[in-house]
Write a structure and sequence with these properties.
This protein is of the alpha+beta class. It contains 2 helices and 15 strands.
């Protein structure tokens, strides 16, 4: 092989080797870039998931702050005894609606539209139920709706009381003590115990020609129910007691 041909072949080999090295370097650069992009994407995805998780998990204080921020659009805010849920009325654009907001959830659930006379809520001691007072706070019949706090379904929508005071829950959350008036207009009033499980009622006291309904004031752990009566002068008696029926 002559000298000129050898030089030519050597140059050609160097050129080919250089091209391979450059391609390898470019491939390494592309791989590094792809790795960086993947890492950045995973990081962004992780941040998004964290943000989403945070949005779906509202604590009691965060829920209360959110309600406070709405000002007088929200009222009758009533937390359950275990602070796991809150029921309230919100003045929306078209109407006032009843909502339930459970801790750990990102938004309140709409229960149903509030009546103009809806005046408050009463939770059971175990936080499994709450009452919606949809009647008039004053003389006359007050209608009360019993709601299952877990399913948010109505258990009974036709509990009535003639008393100006709300019903009183039993300590085990299975019964309500309340006063009702005879439907015939005779003036007879009854002190009854309503069963949450069966929807039936048991009469504890009956008073004919009464001056007004009974008012239940408490139900103690030993089964003692305290109540008052209306006197001829329109005043209320000192507290009297009666034992709740045993089950």
């Amino acid at each position: 092989m002559n000298y000129g041909k050898a030089v030519f072949l050597g140059a050609l080999m160097l050129s080919l080797l250089g091209g391979c090295t450059g391609a390898g370097s470019a491939a390494e650069t592309d791989l590094t870039t792809a790795t960086e992009i993947s890492s950045t994407t995973e990081s962004a995805s992780s941040q998004t998931d964290t943000s989403s998780s945070s949005a779906q998990s509202m604590s009691q204080s965060e829920i209360q702050s959110s309600l406070d921020a709405e000002g007088n659009k929200v009222y009758d805010v009533t937390w359950s005894p275990d602070n796991a849920a809150v029921v309230f009325i919100r003045q929306d654009t078209e109407a006032s609606n009843i909502y339930v907001w459970k801790t750990g959830e990102s938004a309140a659930a709409l229960l149903y539209a509030a009546e103009d006379t809806t005046s408050g809520f009463l939770w059971s001691p175990d936080s499994n139920y709450f009452l919606v007072d949809v009647g008039h706070m004053g003389p006359g019949t007050i209608t009360i709706t019993l709601i299952d706090a877990d399913s948010l379904k109505e258990v009974d929508s036709n509990i009535t009381t003639s008393s100006v005071s709300p019903p009183v829950w039993s300590p085990d959350s299975q019964s309500l003590a309340l006063s009702v008036e005879a439907e015939d207009g005779s003036g007879t009033v009854y002190l009854i115990v309503y069963s949450v499980q069966t929807g039936s009622s048991a009469t504890l006291l009956e008073q004919t020609n009464a001056y007004g309904p009974f008012a239940v004031t408490s139900w103690d752990a030993d089964g003692t129910i305290s109540y008052t009566e209306v006197t001829a002068t329109g005043d209320r008696t000192t507290a009297k007691t009666i034992q709740a029926p045993t089950t």
